[in-house]
Amino acid sequence: MSSIFTKILNKEIPSEIVYEDEEIFVIKDINPKAKIHLLIIPKKEIPTINDLQKEDKELLANMFFVAKKLAKDLNVEEWYQLHFNVWAKWWQEVMHIHLHFTSDL
Ligand code: AMP
Question: 2.30.29.30, 3.40.720.10, 3.30.428.10, 3.40.50.1580: which CATH number matches 4-103?
């Protein structure tokens, strides 16, 4: 079954996609924990960071380059936070890796 993020990508669930390229898309978090709270998501469904394969190296790096671009475009280059949750058994809500991008600037 597709993850909720894949459903967003396929327009089965509404959401605002703020950035998209061949391998990555970015949406606004539905329950923002900061003034800006975006989720940088690979189109490839990888459940958790623990499931990463060597072949995903470039994809992961590209997610950080997208973060860098967003920080510049949103004019928050001086202060933003990036994090992955890996609480696979209890807390991770969506089993499709996503890099949280937050800023209160
Ligand atoms: P986590 O899996 O704990 O790293 O967090 C999942 C994040 O996805 C949470 O911050 C949720 O608010 C967010 N989220 C869940 N469903 C949606 C959705 N339909 N659109 C946007 N963000 C979502």
Answer: 3.30.428.10
